[in-house]
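If you are new to this repository, start here. Below is one unmodified record pulled from the training split, so you can see the exact layout before writing a loader.
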Amino acid sequence: MKNNILDNIITQTLKNRISFWYKLIIFLISALNIAACVIDYGFVLNDKEQNVIFNIYNIAWWCYFITFFVRIVFQWKMINRKTISLTTITGLLLLFSALPKFIPITEASALYNIWQFFSNKHFIILTLLLFAALEVSSGIINFINKKTNPALLMTVCFAIIILFGALLLLLPRSTKEHIVLPVADAIFISTSAVCVTGLSTVDIAQTFTYEGQIVIALLIQIGGLGIMTITSFFAIFFMGGTGLFNQFALRDMIGSETFSSLISTLLYILGFTFIIEAIGAFFIWLSIHGTMNMNLHQEIFFSIFHSISAFCNAGFSTLSGNLGNPTIMYNHNAFYIIISTLIVLGGLGFPILMNFKKMLSYKSGKFFDKIFKRKKQRPFYSHIANINTKIVLSMTAILIVVGTIIIAISEWNRAFAGMPFFDKIVQSLFNAIAPRTAGFNSIDLTQFSLITIIFYSFLMWIGGGSQSTAGGIKVNTFAVAMGNFFSVIKGQKDVRLFNREIESDSIRRASAVIFGSMLTILIFFIGLVIMEPNISAKGLLFETISAFSTVGSSLNVTPLLSDGSKIWVTILMFIGRVGLITVLMSFIKHSETPKYRLPKDNVIIN
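And here is the target side for that same chain:
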């Protein structure tokens, strides 16, 4: 009996060691494969160097091919359905790429073109990258630990993406000939893209090639989805997403109502994002087609880039001077309206869009039941539009209308002087929407009056909806704070919004967010004033609010910043995107609630 137990222990220990070294080797090969792809597409290589890269691809392909079959044979019962789907997809792609290797055919065959596609270098590299990304992500998250604080996981993921993005922007093929991008600028722009801010220390159009602009677009897309989707996606598949702690954290992170709907929520967010961006790109293309001295390829790229940038509230543009460039500024009102619509949709927040889906499904179902006289039992909803939807929609509408009126009155005969009547209306609307974290500029902001700049800063600070691509303190926070303010004035003991009593936790969190935002802005503003004594305090304060709120608007201060100031603003953009509370929670251990209560007392306020 003892011998059997000892044999089992030895066998299990041996299995664990083999598993450890096997995973480590696959992780290292995957990291090497990603590095090879970066070098291959980022540098101009000679034949000898290309041969080395090809050998790395070949080694990685065989390792992944063997890994796929090992998992299928030995780990089939241990792999959950979600992981099976990922493994199957990557495995099938590997099998497709293997067909031309093991089953060669002649040009006369009907399958020749398909075989050519499967043997195409770009298809094989994409397959290897997918496999490598899954392996590296799995390794990193398993290394961090299965019970990692989701706030820490989110912070680390953003930091890794930013550093990797900066590395890609430093590659020779990312920048135009004879341009060497400083490391500080690469980190700044990568952070600005991932944090969907839009601030840039260089002219995007004059500095980056198509490859570099594609990298920026991908970083924007990752950043726009990052908090809600990418972190959640990897967490579900690789950090034991079936755990109750993780499911609670991820459910709140992406606005899912139930545990069972986590995956469907993630897929809906992804699908909705890409569909809206595709529709937006199509309408942008229609609005600029044949009017900007671009060929078809350039028009399509321009449309896709600006659709992604607008929906993700990033504010980056491939035009010099942003959207105030003369090629787009005049006779393109439709373009500005489309961009504004995308900004608003991206700034609503994915929980609101999920609620829209629920409302649409419910209302359309009842409508068709009446049309076709179906007697289908449907659940009754007294308030199908939840309080978050009501707050975000009402606050968004109020801020847009009030902002448009104030900017129109303030700048009608100033910054908008000489424009046709309808152009002034469109520009007023656009410049009321853009400050709420999009950061697109159609007018040089230095032309705006002080009143407009102050109101612009206020809009930047408020931002968009919670769990959206927007930044700022969020309209939800501002609405709760306003509700608390009026409840104190009225002498009410509770805070009420839309016939609902707001939870005390929400009020506490809103107060913490507002205090944290003001403290952060103050600290970073003082830091900039110390480091940049030759730049006006007004410009530095505006820059600070813009960076914290991930807006991207500037009073032409960003290009003047020193390297130290760039890093300082980079840190601020990161805090603004991830959230001060999230950053602090990721490093500060949560204290357990004591089992006793202290005596209550009153603090004199006012």
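Two things worth knowing about this chain: Residues 1-144 form one domain. The longest strand covers residues 496-497.
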